[in-house]
Amino acid sequence: MNVAGPIMALTLAERAKRAAKVAGQFADTVDKNGRFPQEGMDALKAERLMGLMVSPDFGGEGATLTQIADVCGILGQACASTAMTYAMHQIQMASLVDHAAGSAWHEKFLRRICEDQLLIASATSEAGIGGNLRNSICAIEVDGDRVRLEKDATVISYGANADAVMVTSRRHSEAAHSDQVATIFLKEQYSLERTAVWDTLGMRGTCSDGYLFKAEGPAEQILPKPFAEIAAQSMLAVSHLLWGALWFGIAADAVARAQSFVRSAARKTPGQTPPGALRLAEASSLLQLVKANVVAGLKQFENAKGEPDALNAMSFAVAMNNVKIGTSQTILTIINHCMLICGIAGYKNGTPFSLGRHLRDAHSAQLMISNDRILGNTSTMLLVNKQDTSLLG
Amino acid sequence: MIIDTVRNLLSKHGGIPVAVDQLADTDDLYDAGLSSFASVQLMLALEEEFDVEFPEHLLNRKSFASISAIAAALSEIVEDQEVA
Ligand SMILES: Cc1cc2nc3c(=O)[nH]c(=O)nc-3n(C[C@H](O)[C@H](O)[C@H](O)COP(=O)(O)OP(=O)(O)OC[C@H]3O[C@@H](n4cnc5c(N)ncnc54)[C@H](O)[C@@H]3O)c2cc1C
User: Carrier domain: which residues (chain B) (predicted)?
Assistant: First the structure.
């Protein structure tokens, strides 16, 4: 690998910033045309950032989730669609890295992801189920050492641009809705028949079209652990933390734009504090709340990592749900403050202070696994789970 | 017997699509269709029935993974409360 040398001499954050610079140049075009953020994703691959979490034994760098979150935060400041595409890919990576150990096929696949910098999509949402990750209608058909699967997938982000998809389904045709497995299918093993077009308010570059997904492949591509365990111990927490990190990034860039607006006003009227300055102070305090929320969640995750009991604890699930609710709600308030600070310059597209894209992208946060659904789950858990009242624990 | 009460409350609150007497004590309840919502309802019913409170360290998926796991968790709580 001739590019590996010079790249590896840089820190992860430096590599992420180089990719973010490219992604940022195309953010408005990607948003306007609702197209895949090809340039940003190509830059991430050129920086070899796709297989970071994979252990060095299989060709990765053994990065922690905290490091991946940092990359997501950096990308979120440049282009939210690139950041979300990258974050979703890493959610699949975390499931593979943590839950496919010992499976020969998956270990080989991890190696291939690192070598070829593959992009992995996810198909959990299903017609008739909505955002309830832990339920499937479709069932995988096992026929000797072959499997077949058909899924009416309502949303598969970057489905048309992915190299593989991780799909959830019932374990067999008689299995209960919650008795699920996750299977990796490679691009050449599936067909996608588009059933819905992703023409949305924001996150337009994720190209999250709906598809009738049909696949056939070897049975060994089913992940060895039940999806219930993968979801509880990895996917839910990792999703909320990486999403939280990139949502922080969107809000952080909005605050940066508002700050430069206030500063340029201050420079024009020395001795006078511009009217937006107070709101900026408020936005900055809210941004710090979002950051603290994500960082505390990451700390809790890293402490629990590798301990199934800690990851399965109700208090852990409550904490991760709270990261999602808190960040997804607060970024909207922050960006709205920034809009008030910048006024028409923020409302208009194509100015250095434009905030329309930020606001539209940020609106997806509360729908991406509906906050009402998550609050419902948390409220059930709080019927029995005692609150953690310690400051540091 | 704790286990009979567990079975009885599981059939009332578990919302499992199969009949509870078809399940072995060690069968995985989540595979059988126990949702996390139902597991909390079951936990509340057990707390009411045995007049106990599930402590934090037992509030995880494992404690509710099978009929025998629930019974074991309950015996632990009942014993602890008798000692206390
Ligand atoms: C940018 C983006 C990218 C995405 N990418 C993917 C992807 O790659 N793969 C994938 O599988 N999915 C993806 N999703 C889908 C996502 O994970 C959720 O499945 C989806 O956002 C939920 O869709 P919904 O609002 O139609 O459905 P539902 O979850 O059914 O919610 C519909 C409405 O019903 C209400 N509701 C439903 N159930 C409850 C409940 N139990 N309690 C309270 N209220 C409830 C909620 O208020 C909600 O507004 C993506 C979503 C977004 C926004």
Answer: 1-78
Residue A164, beta-bridge partner list: A120, A186
Burial of A9 (0-12, 13-18, 19+ CB in 10 A): exposed
Cα–Cα distance for residue pair A321/A374, rounded to 1 Å? 7
Q: Residues 33..52 of B with a Cβ closer than 8 Å to A: which?
A: 33-37, 40, 43-44, 47
Contact A206, A175 (CB under 8 A): no
| The overall pTM is greater than 0.90 | yes
Give bridge partners of residue A167 from the DSSP assignment.
Answer: A123, A183
Strand partners, A186: A164
What pLDDT does A389 receive? 86
**Contact predicate A63/A132, CB 8 Å:** no
Kindly provide the ipTM of the predicted complex, given to two decimals.
0.78
Identify the pLDDT of residue A232: 87
Contacts of residue A127, defined as CB under 8 A and 6 or more positions apart, other chains included, come to: A137, A152, A153, A154
pLDDT of residue B15: 86
Distance to chain B for A175, nearest Cα, Å: 8
DSSP tag of A307: -
> Which of B18, B31, B42, B50 is the best residue to mutate to test the A interface, defined by the most A CB atoms within 10 Å of its own CB?
B31
Domain segments of chain B as ranges: 2-13+23-83
Superfamily (CATH) of domain B2-13+23-83: ACP-like (1.10.1200.10)
Query: Which parts of chain A register pLDDT below 50?
Result: 1-3
Ranges assigned E (strand) in chain A: 120-123, 141-143, 146-153, 164-170, 180-186, 190-196, 210-218
Would you give the distance in Å from CA A96 to the centre of its chain?
15
**H-only helix segments in A79-182:** 80-99, 104-116
Find residues 155-194 of chain A whose CB sits inside 8 Å of chain B.
Answer: 171, 175-179
**Tens digit of pLDDT for each residue in B38-70?**
888 899 999 999 999 888 888 888 889 999 999
Parallel/antiparallel/unpaired status of strands A141-143 and A146-153: antiparallel
Cα–Cα distance for residue pair A111/A43, rounded to 1 Å: 20
Residues 6+ apart with CB under 8 A from B15: B33, B34, B35, B38
**In the prediction, which pLDDT does B57 show?**
87
